[in-house]
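FORM 12-B: Structure-to-Sequence Request
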């Protein structure tokens, strides 16, 4: 009996000792993690990017890399400089459905400020409620895009702005007819005179005014901007870790970099769905170069919460799903990697910068909460009074 009792005592002592050791170890790990995050917080919120941990970049990403940070000042082109009067005119035209064939559809129909300056639909509908094939991009921060559209087929906002007017599925109006209609509206004369010095209404002036307005639509500082400016306690521990993962282990920064969170390049992340009903050859449609099959413009991640559903075809409705796909290295179904186009075989080559990331569920959550810090609240924009 005595023997049994002492054995029980020994066992009890061993278990509690082990337990103590283990909880000590866990405690130590937690405190190490806490001090690691505290250190990261201090570095990232220092306001000095030279103190930030080195980003994990692939060799091929390096030539096009610039550090994430604030959006720089907006640059207006020399042949279309900023003026508040031109912006007012541009905003009025942006909201004016008389630029469309039916007199019912304005740019603002698909780029609605209350819907993140896009339409939050998978793909847009336009003239006669016809569906397009691509997801409407937000015009927020489009001043920072070096080419426009998912495939970069327009080189400037001036060039871009005529395209939806003429697009049969969007506004379905000949550009000269559209401008002719505007020129007949008496109330526009004064707006053109203020913006351009005289009453003449031309296609060039219409497109320049719209482009100037679009350039002025810029995000205000986000939670991320304030955090890196020194408001160190604004981010939760998870958001700090998310920012760090974005720049390191998850390697999002290879493509989504600069203050715009895009390097403005074209990349293939395995979304072209070749040989399916949704096949989209992307950049290839513009350049006709086989290596551009399935490439799309790297989109900005600013305001991402407001601009869903995501990707060129709007098929993703969850940011978690997107991060999970990246985590798996963007597997692309074998049968969707090739297609026959105009008699030639085209092959989709996914970027070598995508690979298994080995992120834990916690890390996936942290990346997502960080992405959310790049968005700001919807601002109330009062629509202009349309001239008669
Ligand atoms: C019927 C809906 C619809 C209308 C109307 C419309 N857009 Fe768009 N917009 C889209 C879609 C869809 C895309 C993406 C198309 C693509 O990439 O092929 C887009 C893309 C853009 C982009 C590119 C943004 C970027 O980051 O590259 C700009 C700028 C833009 N539209 C401005 C305008 C202007 C200006 C008008 C009015 C003259 C207009 N849109 C009318 C649906 C529309
Ligand atoms: C190789 C370059 C590359 C890397 C690396 C990369 N992306 Fe992307 N990302 C893209 C391209 C290109 C698209 C657009 C593809 C499309 O529309 O089909 C995109 C789209 C997105 C979108 C949807 C944006 C929208 O407006 O629809 C999100 C969100 C996103 N990426 C997040 C991430 C995250 C998070 C990481 C890191 C885990 C990451 N990306 C890594 C190139 C990249």
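FORM 12-B RESPONSE
SEQUENCE OUT:
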């Amino acid at each position: 009996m005595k023997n049994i009792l002492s054995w029980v005592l020994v066992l009890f002592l061993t278990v509690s000792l082990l337990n103590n050791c283990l909880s000590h170890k866990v405690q130590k790990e937690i405190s190490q993690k806490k001090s690691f995050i505290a250190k990261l917080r201090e570095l990232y919120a220092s306001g000095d990017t030279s103190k930030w941990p080195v980003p994990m970049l692939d060799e091929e990403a390096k030539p096009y890399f610039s550090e994430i940070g604030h959006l720089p000042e907006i640059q207006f082109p020399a042949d279309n400089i900023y003026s508040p009067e031109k912006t007012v005119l541009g905003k009025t035209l942006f909201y004016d459905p008389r630029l469309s064939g039916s007199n019912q559809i304005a740019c603002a129909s698909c780029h609605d400020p209350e819907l993140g300056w896009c339409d939050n639909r998978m793909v847009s509908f336009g003239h006669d409620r016809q569906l397009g094939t691509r997801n409407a991009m937000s015009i927020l921060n489009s001043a920072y895009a070096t080419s426009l559209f998912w495939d970069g087929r327009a080189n400037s906002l001036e060039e871009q702005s005529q395209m939806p007017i003429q697009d049969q599925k969007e506004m379905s109006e000949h550009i000269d007819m559209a401008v002719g209609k505007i020129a007949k509206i008496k109330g526009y004369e004064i707006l053109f005179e203020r913006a351009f010095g005289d009453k003449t209404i031309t296609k060039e002036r219409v497109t320049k005014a719209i482009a100037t307005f679009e350039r002025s639509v810029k995000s205000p500082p986000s939670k991320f901007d304030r955090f890196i400016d020194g408001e160190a306690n604004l981010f939760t521990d998870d958001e700090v870790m998310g920012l760090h993962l974005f720049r390191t282990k998850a390697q999002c920064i290879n493509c989504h970099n600069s203050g715009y969170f895009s390097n403005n390049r074209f990349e293939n992340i395995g979304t072209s769905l070749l040989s399916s009903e949704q096949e989209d050859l992307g950049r290839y449609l513009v350049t006709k170069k086989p290596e551009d099959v399935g490439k799309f413009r790297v989109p900005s991640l600013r305001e991402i919460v407001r601009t869903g559903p995501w990707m060129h075809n709007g098929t993703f409705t969850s940011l978690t799903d997107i991060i999970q796909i990246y985590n798996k290295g963007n597997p692309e179904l074998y049968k969707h990697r090739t297609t026959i186009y105009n008699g030639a075989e085209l092959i989709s080559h996914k970027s070598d910068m995508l690979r298994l990331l080995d992120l834990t569920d916690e890390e996936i959550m942290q990346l997502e909460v960080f992405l959310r810090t790049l968005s700001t609240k919807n601002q109330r924009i009062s629509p202009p009074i349309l001239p008669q």
